[in-house]
Records
---
Amino acid sequence: MASRALYKTVSSARGIVSHQNCFLRPLSTVNSLRQAQASTSNEKVTPESLVPPTSTPLKKPIRQAVASAVEPITPYNMTISKLMAAGLHLGHSTSLWEPATLPFIFGTREGISIINLEHTLVYLRRACNVAREVALRGGSILFVGTRPGFQDLTIEAARYCDGFHVSSKWIPGTLTNRHQVLGRHAPPDPEDPGRPPKTYKPDLIVLLNPLEHKIAISEAQLNNIPIIAITDTDYDPRLVSYPIPANDDSIRGVELVAKVLSTAARDGLHRRKQLLDQKEKEKKLLRKQHSTKY
């Protein structure tokens, strides 16, 4: 009996303590809220107090914040999951299938050819190596993308690697008859204004929509200019030098490929600048040693 009475007293005491605690917590929060309201009511609200100071940093737009937070895509961190997220695995209908693209096709799904992204990743890395080497050796790269929605990304990719771009229309004869087509747009020679202006051929062409540029491809073949092109399941990859089997209708996917290629070309330019600076330092060092000897 004594043990039962002792148990009841202990349990009742615990209940009292728990009830006290549960009542003390809300009372403390209520008091803090009342103090905060009293402090804000004592302060006078003026129009100047509502305006943030000039030292307050401005908020970035959501798109810029997301772009800065996400890791930039480069040829070194490219993965199959990123290619799939961009929709590069979706080909055309099986009725438009080109038999030459059989090695690049993984299968069919509801009448649509599915591209094997393992081949896409391999061929994309090979194209990046080509663009990097061309830029490293001082060559010029021409980006061509004339479909609706491709114009802006074509210009951005060309500017990022100090290249050239054609985003509106390919004029027939741009390469085979460049003296007449491009000569009127080229600046005159300052030493001899009467001489016809010089025109140059690109060392590499990046075609984002090769299906609409048969003339550009034939002109590049006549001038022995290599071509990097995005080849879908309805296009023969043997017509270009470095095909990239991927979906050429996805704007997001084409933008991804163009960014990766321009990043590779920019790496080549950076490497070339480093090599030129190193050679210039070596020449200055040799001149200095030669002058000290004599």
---
Amino acid sequence: MEHYYRELVSFLSSRLGSRQAAEDVAHDAYLRVLERTDSQQIEHPRAFLYRTALNLVVDRHRRHQVRQAESLDVLDLDEQWHGPALTLDMQRDQRLALMQKALDELSGACRDCFLLRKLDGLSHQQIADRLGISRSLVEKHIVNAMKHCRLRMRQWES
């Protein structure tokens, strides 16, 4: 199923107008499909992958629309000093610590590819050039890192 990756990214790039956004959606789609194939066989993997990716594009668009519709009046500057906001900060800090723990479990190359993509925003080709590995290996490392982190976060949070 990995051989559909570049085709899917091209397809999504034309829809989203951004290769980076397309790669992010493709990663998420692959991750969801991989999680699903752990529990059951998918009869038409390419079609399922594309449907999953398109659903993610729709979700992304809806989130963007909601963000655009929110009034700035709902942001109360004093809110940061109230209990719920502090609790959310603590929860976020705990999740970040768990994410760091999950990343520490990855091989160096896998973790480096993931961080260069997600934190530094480098393209797959830029990562491949920097690390001296193939672009397809970069793509596999990123998908594996995402799958591992999502699995570990679910385990630790339940």
